[in-house]
Design a protein that fits this description.
This protein is of the alpha/beta class and 423 residues long. Helices cover 31% and strands 17% of the residues. The protein has 11 helices and 16 strands. The strands form 4 sheets. Strands 4-3-2-1-5-6 form a 6-stranded mixed β-sheet. The chain has a 4-stranded mixed β-sheet with strand order 7-8-9-16. A 4-stranded antiparallel β-sheet has the order 10-11-14-15, covered by helices on one side. α7 runs antiparallel to α8. It is elongated, with a radius of gyration of 23 Å. Keywords: Hydrolase. This is Ectoine hydrolase. Its EC number is 3.5.4.44.
């Protein structure tokens, strides 16, 4: 391992992560592991690239120096970003799996017990078939989840980085809410979110923000498609800011006109769920308990709405196609996992089908402490943002957005402007 001081975290943090991985390898009698999941490679080495469509892997032996197999172009990311000293790159015309196999043989791992991530997005079925049929000299074992066992509880270093992601999330959401007016397009709102998020020091998230208006809010995972917001409609926004591939996310809702009784009730029941959870979440509570709490409160609504998904998911490191760590842990019924300090969750008590034709949301990203939980967005208003009726508003389509302070990432300042109802 090559010690350096220009990585996201101190060198000692990466040493700790590798040592934890090797301890689990020893427990499972593994001589080496092949880590192909992009999030796990970043967690262990600080390596990242948008070129993950090509095969890449970090090989960690129980003893000896780890090495990486990557496309030749991506070798530069190993050299300039990580502590990894040994690489075995393959050209675009080469065979990635044969390079992996020849490297395993070169470093004396043929005939050993080797783990690989069978459920990784980035080690496709074809490559796995080739690997298993070509490398018959070793015992190959599925080790999926061996790194995630460490990732699920964030260190203080990681929580500090997530605060920087939260700064970008808040900046983007504030700008998006400010941009909402009858007559603007969803694209204009999305543009303001993106501008503010990046100006605040945020980096490219694994998924861009979701912005839908009116009847389009009933479409799952839809985003801007040029629709113009109409008077009296509501706009649903979900934003995940990112810093060094760590994410925090939130949902908010804006209304162009008066807030109806049903939308007000939806707002209040979602706020009640978040407030209750923030007071009750603590180490020892089970995932199933959390999900039950959310659903029991949301079930109280009298506006015909439902929670049709999980009630939350782990969040942290993410590459496309998602910004969550829900495959590690999601808040669902029947799961006995217990909350532990350092866990981070996007809690989503959103409501689908208000009055039969509206979806709205208020959400938060919580982190579990030694005796409770905290919010990355404690200083951000949860109420729906209500904009003046179009007939009473000024006729232009000007967009008011926040101006991010200078160097927000290094100074770790807070977004000072809170969301308020327009007078």
């Amino acid at each position: 391992m090559r010690e350096r001081d220009d990585m996201t975290f101190p060198f000692a943090e990466y040493q700790r992560r590798i040592n934890e991985l090797r301890a689990r390898m020893a427990e499972r009698l593994l001589d080496a592991v092949i880590i192909s999941d992009a999030e796990n490679i970043l967690y262990l080495t600080d390596y990242q690239t948008t070129g993950y469509s090509f095969f890449q892997a970090l090989v960690v032996p129980l003893e000896g120096e780890p090495f990486m197999v990557t496309r030749k172009l991506e070798e530069s990311n190993v050299i300039h970003r990580t502590w990894v000293e040994i690489t075995r790159p393959f050209p675009d015309t080469g065979d990635a799996i044969q390079m992996l196999i020849s490297s395993l043989v070169e470093f004396g791992l043929a005939g050993k017990t080797i783990g690989y991530e069978r459920n990784s997005y980035y080690f496709n079925a074809y490559h796995q078939d080739v690997f298993r049929t070509s490398f018959v000299r070793s015992r190959l074992m599925d080790c999926f989840g061996i790194v995630e066992q460490s990732r699920i509880c964030k260190s203080q270093y990681e929580l500090d980085v997530m605060k920087k992601a939260a700064f970008a999330t808040k900046a983007g959401m504030q700008a998006g809410l400010d941009a909402v007016q009858a007559g603007v397009t969803e694209n204009e709102i999305g543009g303001e979110i993106s501008r503010a998020m990046f100006a605040a020091g945020g980096e490219i998230p694994s998924v861009m923000p979701y912005v839908t208006s009116g009847p389009r809010t009933m479409i799952g995972h839809a985003s801007w498609e040029g629709r113009t917001v109409q008077p009296g409609e509501h706009v649903f926004i979900e934003v995940a800011g990112s810093y060094r591939k760590y994410h925090t996310a939130m949902m908010r809702t804006a209304i162009c006109g008066e807030i109806s009784d049903s939308m007000y009730e939806a707002q209040e029941v979602m706020k009640k769920a978040l407030n209750w959870l923030q007071s009750e979440l603590r180490p020892g509570v089970t995932v199933s308990d959390v999900d039950r709490m959310v659903r029991s409160i949301l079930h109280e609504n009298k506006v015909g709405a439902r929670l049709i998904t999980r009630s939350g998911y782990s969040i942290g490191i993410a590459f496309p196609p998602s910004w969550d760590e829900g495959y590690i842990l999601s808040l669902n019924q029947g799961q006995s996992d217990i909350l532990k300090p350092g866990m981070t969750f996007h809690i989503i008590p959103w409501l689908w089908g208000v009055d039969g034709d509206k979806t709205c949301g208020i959400s938060d990203t919580f982190y579990i402490t030694e005796d409770g939980c905290g919010s990355f967005f404690q200083d951000f208003e949860r109420d729906f943002v209500v904009k003046p009726d179009a007939s009473k508003a000024v006729g232009d389509k000007s967009v008011t957005s926040i101006t991010a302070p200078k160097s927000p990432i290094t100074e770790d300042k807070k977004v000072e402007k809170s969301v308020k109802k327009a007078k």
